[in-house]
From TrEMBL:
It holds the Pfam family YbaB_DNA_bd. It comes from the Bacteria. Residues 119-182 are annotated as: Disordered. Transmembrane segments: none annotated. This is YbaB/EbfC family nucleoid-associated protein.
Length: 182
């Protein structure tokens, strides 16, 4: 009977050592995954090379470079082009993260799958590129047009709330309406 007890303890010790080894190996793989993900950066450029953006694995803009010819476009279009490039770069992050997962922990790990699902949710494919309407290079401000059929409204004087007393209604018996400096 003592012999069986020794075998059971030996088996338990081996099982604990194997579990510790697997845990240490998994921790080392996730450390490598974290390092690879932190090093992910995606760069996108406009067709004419006037705009270049780089985003980190977090999706944050790391770098924005505008060439001299970038100012040839209207400001609204420049802003839209920058945002489109940022979205295009962000959309590539999940693919690069997937490659990092495959290279380190493997696609079978549920925690890694969760990380990839979150990346896909936060960085979806950008909307299709739309050409903005030609505007002749001016910035326009549009104001609402008032309806000519309605007469203009007169401003209404502010109304006093019924519960407030006006300053000249104070009942100050100490000094009356005169100065206290007599």
């Amino acid at each position: 009977m003592a012999e069986d007890f020794g075998r059971d303890i030996g088996a338990a010790e081996r099982m604990v050592r194997e579990w510790q080894d697997r845990a240490a190996e998994k921790a080392e793989k996730f450390t490598r995954l974290q390092q690879q993900v932190e090093n992910i950066a995606v760069t996108e450029s406009s067709r004419d090379g006037a705009i270049r953006v780089t985003v980190a694995s977090s999706g944050m803009l790391q770098d924005l470079q505008l060439a001299d010819n970038a100012d040839n476009r209207p400001m609204a279009r420049l802003g839209a082009d920058i945002m489109r490039l940022v979205q295009q770069a962000q959309a590539k992050i999940p693919g690069q993260m997937q490659q990092a997962v495959e290279d380190t922990v493997g696609m079978g790990d549920s925690a890694a799958q969760h990380v990839l699902d979150q990346a896909r949710r936060h960085f979806p494919e950008p909307p299709p590129e739309e050409e903005p309407p030609a505007r002749g290079g001016r910035n326009e401000i549009r104001t609402p047009v008032e309806d000519a059929a309605q007469p203009p409204r007169r401003p209404q004087p502010p109304q006093q709330s019924p519960g407030r007393r006006r300053p000249d209604d104070f009942d100050d018996e100490d000094f009356g309406n005169g100065s206290f400096l007599r």
